[in-house]
Every structure is written in structure tokens, then in C-alpha cells.
Amino acid sequence: MNLDFKNLGFEYTKTNCSYISYFKDGKWDEGKLVEDDTITISLTSPALHYAQQGFEGMKAYRWKDGSVHMFRIDENAKRLQSTCRRLLMPEISVEKFINAVRMVVKANEDFVPPYGTNATLYIRPFIFGVGNNLGLRSAKEFIFSIVVTPVGPYFKGGLIPVNFMVTSEDRAAPNGTGAVKVGGNYAASLHSNKLAKDLGFADCIYLDPATHTKIEEVGAANFFAITKNGEFVTPISPSILPSITKRSLLVIAKDYLNIPAFERDIYIDHLEDYTEAGACGTAAVISPIGGILYNDNFHVFYSETEVGPVTKKLYDTIIKIQFGDLEAPKNWIFDL
Question: Are residues 139 and 239 in the same domain?
């Protein structure tokens, strides 16, 4: 292995092995590590025709002492269970999920980038329905797999503000699958993402699908803002994916930075009430938002070139926790 960890992008690099487990005859097998990073499935698998699949995303971090740790992976396990219930897939126990993550990370420990590079080992668990199943019904067999790869920062430019535009398209229906992490939600966002990038924006802002008056998500991430009164606020809706990063920031704002933090409606026509804004998620952690285009009006928050002070504190704090430079709340950190 000869990787330049300091210049990694957010791309796939083959590692030593992946994890795979099969569900058949009503139960999961024990699972195992495999060197091959390809899978052969039936051409009529429900995952291919009816999008019966879900996934998660998390990271492993190299700490200053050389040890490797993961961040809140039990919450990823629970969220995947919610996805499985929504799409009629067999649940994976939290214990099986965590053991599988530990197994595959341990087997690829040499691929966890060194402390100080700001790079991590990205972990992608996923589950999907397979087997001969042409009709519209749930599969009888499933595959649960985990692939890992070393990645650098999601945005190569570092923590700098980026601009977004509001799209008229929806990523999820009011009572649909927006609150679970399924591939169909992301496929629905590809078109609006391309339109935004073609116009020079980083991505698009999605409004609530029922009324188109409230901010819901930012591309594939959750949204947050800082009010003029110094409050941390983030949207609440049944069609928003419950981001583990967002939930962590709510705790960090209140318990580490003494900032009032709330989940509540954020109306798109009241952007002037907020001094800073950002997108948050596992891949990018935090992406500061410079400005938002809505109905031909471009609203700038703190700055298009500089990160707001509260956003910077939130980012620095969660990064320090993840890389072991600041004590984490109880049960947030998992060892190998």
C-alpha cells in the first residue's frame, strides 16, 4: 500500500477486504470478510427493480496515540433498523452491526489515515433485497455488506463557505421515505443537484414537500442556522433524515458551547432572521453556507468568504471529539 493520505479525495480506494452476510430461510448467517469487492446477484433482484435497499455512512478516526475509534455507530445501527422496517427488510441487530463494523475496520486498520491528515476511513454499510423476484413484493433473501475506503475532506478547499439555491423539486413526499436512508431519496436528488451545479452552486436547498415554505434539507445533508439571538436551530419534519451529525451538534451546542439549541420550523422567507447557516452530515461534517438564492433574491449570511464564529466553534468541537482531542459524551466513542 502506497497512499498519499494528505491528498486523498472523497473517492473509492480498494482495501484489504469487505464484510458480507446473507439472509436466507428467515435468518442471517454469521457473516464473513471477503477480498472481492464485487457481488453477483439475480437480474430480477428487488434491489435493482424496486429499490429495496438502504445504507449508512460513518467513519473511523486515527487518534494522536495511534489508536482507532468510531463515532456513535450504535446510532447508525438503529437508523438502519428503521430503514429496514420501512422497506420490509430483515433488521440487523445492533450487536451484529457493531461487531461487523469492528471486524472490517480491524482488518483494514492500515488504511485508517494518520492523525493530523484530517483524513478518515469511510465506512459504508448497506442492505438490499436479492433473488429471483420479478413481481412487486419484498425479497425473501437479502445481503448485508460493509465496504470501507480511506477518504480525505469532502470539500477539498477546507472549511470555506459555499452557496446554495432553492429548488422547486422535492427529494421526498410528506408521508414517504424521507426519514429513512434509502437510495431512492438520493436518486431523486440527482437532477436538482445537477441543475444547481450547472448554475454555479454547490447544491440545492429542499423545501418541505407539503407547503414549500420551510427549509428541510441541503442536498444530501441536514440544515442548521444561527439566529440573531445566538441560538442554534435546525428544521424538524417527518420527511427529514435524522442526521446523527445534526443530533450531535444539538448536544455540542448546548453542553459544550452553552448555546441554546432547538429543532423547529425554519421558513425560507425569513432568512434575514439568521446570521449564519450550514449543512451537516457524516461526509462533510459541516459545510458553511455563504448565501442562498431564492426567487431571484440572493441572501448572504455571515460572509461568502469567511466562516461564521459559531459555525467554526461547532466544527472545531465535533472534530476534536471525533479525533480524541476532547472528551466525548458517554457512549459516543467506540473502540476497535
Answer: no
- SS3 state at 121: strand
Give the domain range for residue 267: 162-322
Same domain membership, residue 168 and residue 121: no
**Cα–Cα distance measured from residue 45 to residue 134, given in angstroms and rounded to the nearest whole number:** 7
Tally DSSP H helices, then E strands, for the chain: 7, 18
pLDDT tens string 84-107: 999 999 999 999 999 999 999 999
Number of structural domains in the chain: 2
The CATH number of the domain where 110 resides is what?
3.30.470.10
Cβ count within 10 A of residue 156: 10
pLDDT tens-digit profile of 127-143?
999 999 999 999 999 99
Amino acid letter at 12? Y
Low-confidence ranges of the chain (pLDDT < 50): none
| Residues 169 and 316 reside in one and the same domain | yes
Q: How many CA atoms lie within 13 A of 148 on its CB side?
A: 32
Q: How far apart are CA 288 and CA 290, in angstroms?
A: 6
Residues with a catalytic annotation lie at 181
Separation of alpha carbons 144 and 60, rounded Å = 19
Are residue 118 and residue 205 in the same domain, yes or no?
no
pLDDT at 269: 96
CA dihedral 39, 41, 46, 50 (to 10 degrees): 60
pLDDT of residue 242: 94
Give me 28's grid cell: 442471517
Place of cell 441572501: 299
Same domain as 64, residue 38: yes
Please tell me whether residue 14 adopts helix, strand or coil conformation: coil
